[in-house]
Amino acid sequence: MHLPSDPATQKLLGFLLHVPFLPPAGGNQREQDRLKAQKKAAANAKKPKESAATLAKRKEADAEILRAKQKKKEEEKAASAGGASSSKG
User: Fold this and answer.
1) Does 27 reside within a domain?
2) Torsion sign (Cα): 76, 79, 82, 83
3) pLDDT tens profile 61-70
4) Mean pLDDT of 71-82
């Protein structure tokens, strides 16, 4: 490599050749979000997919549980309403 003979230019070029190039400070939020998204995608890829039949069975079981809870609540409400009317008399 040929350096110019001017001392000022030589000094400047020598300085520039020895200064390490640093990434800009801060501003790495995009990189952090990208890494987080990669981890999340990798975790989701490992999970087994739920088939349509399994999904339908699970939904039906959940609905049955909710119907049973609702029925129990209605029975308790009816029992408390029946008990309150008899105590007034």
Assistant:
1) no
2) negative
3) 999 999 999 9
4) 91
